[in-house]
Design a protein that fits this description.
It comes from Amycolatopsis acidicola. One of its GO terms (molecular function) is DNA binding. With about 375 residues, the chain is α+β, with helices and mostly antiparallel strands. The chain is built from 16 helices and 16 strands. The strands form 5 sheets. Strands 12-13-14-15-16 form a 5-stranded mixed β-sheet. Strands 1-10-11 form a 3-stranded mixed β-sheet. A 3-stranded antiparallel β-sheet has the order 2-4-3. A hairpin with a 7-residue loop joins strand 8 (about 180) and strand 9 (about 190-195).
């Protein structure tokens, strides 16, 4: 059995994520196998800038018919290849009631108190969204209309809005099953019908769900069922029911972990991770559930992954070597503050400043300034 160390694993992930920047075709980027999260403004474009030998802005990504933005994994907004959206939707049908309830995550207790099963509530909301969203509509308008249709247990009183809303996580998880996507770049968040949306599918598709786990292991492996479950938003028990067949078992840190068999060669002999990149908050590389592998120091982990307002991360030769933030001055200049965890050699600092230029272009700024914290 192959024994891997941390440096080997990080080198593998840098290569698996396409961070060596070897392609000019945005649609071929490996990270679209799971979807590219777009939680904060321009994060998807900046993630692409770290991987693409070329330039893509958030606006051009949103206008590209090859991609669609939707609430998918864990109810978070992701860009997916449009041709793969039906399979993604199938993969998001819970396997059973326990899986459906686990996916409710932070609103699980409210769903449990709703007086119905999680699957029943999910698909009741999906039918309501399918009925309501027949044109672009703001999230607030959709929520108002859907709340009037769904069973009362799926709603709650929102003090901030002084009104009753459908549960947020239920709406997010149900939207894709209701044939609704998100309008890229729209503020406030706006839903619209998926082009050519088919019928509502409620039957679990184990093969589709398994493909998500396999892709997680390909990008974030070697990994465990518990870590894959964290990405999916379910339990380790359910992740094992989605477990792929063609996996290679390796040992890392005294425990068993897995990668797809066809990725074993890259894991055995990954290229040197000799790159410097500025990764945005929620970049796919940062989505690995084994944060201690990425950042062994617990205090540093809290600097990279915050409860609110994550910074970007500075990647230097496979290591997360610091954080960065930006502040825009109108649409003219983007000011960067880069805060390394240790003293970087001049070539790494110069490379980081060059990466800042790519980030500024991706975000549509003509000028930039870099300060080192």
């Amino acid at each position: 059995m192959l024994e891997v160390d941390r440096e080997q694993m990080l080198a593998y992930r840098v290569a698996a994520h396409g961070l060596h920047r070897e392609t000019t075709d945005v649609a071929s980027l490996a990270v679209f196998g799971l979807g590219l999260q777009s939680t904060q403004r321009d994060t998807a474009a900046v993630s692409i800038a770290a991987r693409l030998n070329g330039t893509v802005t958030e606006e051009s990504l949103g206008e590209d018919p090859r991609f669609v933005l939707a609430w998918t994994h864990r109810g978070a907004p992701h860009f997916h290849r449009a041709a793969e959206l039906a399979e993604v939707t199938a993969a998001l049908v819970p396997l059973d009631e326990a899986d459906a309830m686990a996916r409710m995550q932070w609103q699980r207790k409210q769903v449990e108190a709703a007086g119905m099963g999680a699957r029943e509530g999910l698909f009741a909301a999906a039918r309501a969204i399918r009925q309501v969203v027949d044109k672009p509509m703001t999230k607030g308008a959709v929520s108002t209309a859907v709340t009037k249709i769904v069973p009362g247990g799926l709603s709650y009183f929102c003090r901030g809005c002084d009104t009753v809303h459908i549960l947020e996580q239920v709406m997010r998880l149900a939207a894709i099953h209701g044939g609704a996507r998100l309008e890229p770049g729209a503020f406030p968040a706006t839903l619209a019908p998926v082009a050519g949306r088919g019928r509502l599918r409620t039957k679990p598709d184990v093969a589709a769900a398994t493909s998500v786990v396999e892709e997680y292991l390909r990008l974030h492996g070697p990994a465990t069922a518990s870590e894959a479950a964290g990405f999916v938003g379910t339990t380790a028990t359910k992740a094992k029911e989605m477990w792929p067949a063609d996996l290679a078992e390796v040992r890392f840190g005294g425990r068993r972990a897995f990668v797809p068999v066809d990725a074993l060669g890259l894991l055995e002999n990954p290229p040197e991770p000799d790159v410097v990149r500025l990764l945005p908050p929620w970049d796919p590389f940062l989505q690995s559930r084994d944060r201690a592998t990425l950042v062994p120091d617990k205090a540093r982990q809290k600097e990279v992954w915050k409860i609110l307002g994550n910074p970007g991360a500075l990647l230097v030769e496979g290591e997360l070597a610091g954080t960065w933030r930006t502040k825009g001055s109108g649409r003219k200049r983007l000011d960067f503050t880069v805060s390394p965890f240790w003293t970087l050699p001049p070539p790494a600092r110069k490379a980081a400043e060059e990466e800042a230029e790519r980030v500024a272009v991706a975000r549509g700024f003509a000028d930039l300034r870099v300060s080192w914290g």
